[in-house]
């Protein structure tokens, strides 16, 4: 990544997110290439980073979209992703969202419970349309990742067990308003072990074969997302081995592969850059206080996640400190007990691997404006989301003042 953080700070102020679009292209092509032996759709998990320009960039490469709200579906459509490449997932879809999604003619609705299938069926009937259905199977596999981002065990709220799925497919087959189209599993995020993925794809592919035996032929096999990235020193799943393992499980089945990566495509494209405000020492603990905070990037506070940080100055004198933001919570930290150089006012601090689940999880806590987002592509930078203003923040309240 060859980005001049100082120049961007002068031009756009701090804090900001910057995304390297060329990195995103490389990630997309690597994964798409790994599946070249088959028809495949890489449906970008929009929740990872839903900036319109990011989605548009992926759309230009040929990506589809995996969406978990009608808002995300509309973002995908807005930047030109074809409806036939859009999947609508989520454990709790609202009636109005189902209705709208059916009207938009997207590829499939990914259903996560028997009760939801009944809702989709009755709404499709009301609208007199046929809903293309995929069912999310929970294979009861431990993905060996952080418990908050693990989804493939029966103790998690996601998907349905094999037997329920089978009954639901039979219901689809017998319905005038449902069409069994796909099957889906996603066992968790930031996965670094191939074995659990293999096991779950194997379980789900056995179900696909069982269904074929009773004349329920599915066209799409959605292996979910979850491929991990390097934050620290993780050893990653090789994308070719990943694709190979999936292809082996699907041997002999005429089915298009869908994969829903989020973090893998955008995670390491992004850097969050903020500026040192002050240093202080409380007792014998040193604190470096920057202008970015937990409301901008909550992963350390929420998951105790590690993000590599770097102070952009020439000082080589390191000492232990906590890197914190200005928000009034002890949870407002980016890193604890790390060695950083002595800093002075306005030194820049880069927080890496900030392209996924960082801006999208930002809030306005403490009436802090969401920061600017910048894209760099072919050496050129451009603003892709302007910094919010105080007026933006009060816009939905002001008219109600008495
Ligand atoms: N498909 C489904 C059904 C999902 O639930 C997710 C992520 C993805 C695909 C994309 O997963 P990815 O390829 O990005 O791992 N906020 C957390 C991550 C939550 C992931 C939720 N589901 C974090 O900051 O680590």
TrEMBL record:
<feature type="domain" description="Orn/DAP/Arg decarboxylase 2 C-terminal">
    <location>
        <begin position="17"/>
        <end position="355"/>
    </location>
</feature>
<keyword id="KW-0028">Amino-acid biosynthesis</keyword>
<feature type="active site" description="Proton donor">
    <location>
        <position position="328"/>
    </location>
</feature>
<dbReference type="InterPro" id="IPR022653">
    <property type="entry name" value="De-COase2_pyr-phos_BS"/>
</dbReference>
<dbReference type="InterPro" id="IPR009006">
    <property type="entry name" value="Ala_racemase/Decarboxylase_C"/>
</dbReference>
<keyword id="KW-0663">Pyridoxal phosphate</keyword>
<keyword id="KW-0210">Decarboxylase</keyword>
<comment type="similarity">
    <text>Belongs to the Orn/Lys/Arg decarboxylase class-II family. LysA subfamily.</text>
</comment>
<dbReference type="InterPro" id="IPR022643">
    <property type="entry name" value="De-COase2_C"/>
</dbReference>
<dbReference type="GO" id="GO:0030170">
    <property type="term" value="F:pyridoxal phosphate binding"/>
</dbReference>
<dbReference type="InterPro" id="IPR002986">
    <property type="entry name" value="DAP_deCOOHase_LysA"/>
</dbReference>
<comment type="pathway">
    <text>Amino-acid biosynthesis; L-lysine biosynthesis via DAP pathway; L-lysine from DL-2,6-diaminopimelate: step 1/1.</text>
</comment>
<feature type="binding site">
    <location>
        <position position="226"/>
    </location>
    <ligand>
        <name>pyridoxal 5'-phosphate</name>
    </ligand>
</feature>
<feature type="binding site">
    <location>
        <position position="299"/>
    </location>
    <ligand>
        <name>substrate</name>
    </ligand>
</feature>
<feature type="binding site">
    <location>
        <position position="263"/>
    </location>
    <ligand>
        <name>substrate</name>
    </ligand>
</feature>
<feature type="binding site">
    <location>
        <position position="357"/>
    </location>
    <ligand>
        <name>pyridoxal 5'-phosphate</name>
    </ligand>
</feature>
<dbReference type="InterPro" id="IPR029066">
    <property type="entry name" value="PLP-binding_barrel"/>
</dbReference>
<keyword id="KW-0457">Lysine biosynthesis</keyword>
<feature type="domain" description="Orn/DAP/Arg decarboxylase 2 N-terminal">
    <location>
        <begin position="23"/>
        <end position="266"/>
    </location>
</feature>
<dbReference type="InterPro" id="IPR000183">
    <property type="entry name" value="Orn/DAP/Arg_de-COase"/>
</dbReference>
<dbReference type="GO" id="GO:0009089">
    <property type="term" value="P:lysine biosynthetic process via diaminopimelate"/>
</dbReference>
<comment type="subunit">
    <text>Homodimer.</text>
</comment>
<dbReference type="InterPro" id="IPR022657">
    <property type="entry name" value="De-COase2_CS"/>
</dbReference>
<feature type="binding site">
    <location>
        <position position="357"/>
    </location>
    <ligand>
        <name>substrate</name>
    </ligand>
</feature>
<keyword id="KW-0456">Lyase</keyword>
<feature type="binding site">
    <location>
        <begin position="260"/>
        <end position="263"/>
    </location>
    <ligand>
        <name>pyridoxal 5'-phosphate</name>
    </ligand>
</feature>
<comment type="function">
    <text>Specifically catalyzes the decarboxylation of meso-diaminopimelate (meso-DAP) to L-lysine.</text>
</comment>
<dbReference type="InterPro" id="IPR022644">
    <property type="entry name" value="De-COase2_N"/>
</dbReference>
<dbReference type="Pfam" id="PF02784">
    <property type="entry name" value="Orn_Arg_deC_N"/>
</dbReference>
<feature type="binding site">
    <location>
        <position position="329"/>
    </location>
    <ligand>
        <name>substrate</name>
    </ligand>
</feature>
<feature type="modified residue" description="N6-(pyridoxal phosphate)lysine">
    <location>
        <position position="47"/>
    </location>
</feature>
<feature type="binding site">
    <location>
        <position position="303"/>
    </location>
    <ligand>
        <name>substrate</name>
    </ligand>
</feature>
<dbReference type="Pfam" id="PF00278">
    <property type="entry name" value="Orn_DAP_Arg_deC"/>
</dbReference>
<dbReference type="GO" id="GO:0008836">
    <property type="term" value="F:diaminopimelate decarboxylase activity"/>
</dbReference>
<protein>
    <recommendedName>
        <fullName>Diaminopimelate decarboxylase</fullName>
        <ecNumber>4.1.1.20</ecNumber>
    </recommendedName>
</protein>
